[in-house]
Every structure is written in C-alpha cells, then in structure tokens.
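Feature request, filed as a ticket because there's no other form

It would be nice if the structure record came with a short human-readable summary line next to the tokens. Right now we just get the raw output. Example of a typical job, pasted below so the devs can see what we mean:
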Amino acid sequence: MTETRNVANLKDEKEIRRRCSDILHEFFDMVNSRQLNPDHAFWIENISPNYTYTGLHGNFSFYEPIDLKNQLRQLEALYLTESPNFELIIIHLDTERESSDLRTYMQYDIRDSPEGLTRQSAAQIKWSLDDGKLKILEVQTMAGAAL
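Raw output as currently delivered:
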C-alpha cells in the first residue's frame, strides 16, 4: 500500500526545487511526445495514486477534478480530434514550501490549440511524498484565454 506523507522532512530546498522542475519538464515532454499511456513508468513513478487534475479552461466539463487516466484520455482526444499539433511549453516555475505544504506555481503556453493560437496559462501543483518519493498530487490550471 502506498503511504502518502507530507513533505516537511525534505531538507534540501535547492534539491527540492530542482526535482520538482525536472518532474514537471518531463511531464510536459511526455504530453508533447504523446506518451499518454497511464501505465508508462514516468506516470507511475512521478504521479501520486491520489492525483487529481482540475482545469478552468472555459469548458465546464473540466471543472470537476479528474484522475490521471481521465486527464490523459482528454489529452489524447484533444490531439486526435481537435489539435494534432498542440504543444505545452513551460515559461516559469516557482516552488515554495510552507511547513508540510509544497507547491509549484507555473506559467506555461499552450500552442496550436486551436492551430495557430498560443494561450498563456497558469497552474498550481501540489506535491506529496509517497513511499519516500516526491510525486505530483494535484494540478489546478487556468488558461488565460478562458475568460
């Protein structure tokens, strides 16, 4: 059974920030290369079993939190049907910790969804320590073009 703990016992702030950045860059690389099988080692090793995604992108179906499998299905449907060339680009990351709470605030671009359009977006990522490994627990996003 997976044990989820808080991140208060992580000590090296520089290493924590580097690890969060590495995981998020690889997350975007996985999406951009269409590696969307939830059984892929990256997803298993870096995403908490309790993961949820909530996106505020002008589509009411995204307001309810979904798990990783459903998020990956939505991304797959997006590139298969609407935006075959979409790409996610990280612009800036800032990871902060307050006692047992570790969060990354991220600015990123969604390119070519729809074709020819770049939308600026933001995300808040909450982290957990699962079986001694830093993992993404929750992602909340908001696209700049949604309002």
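Something like this underneath would help us a lot:
The radius of gyration is 15 Å.
The CA atoms of residues 8 and 100 lie 4 Å apart.
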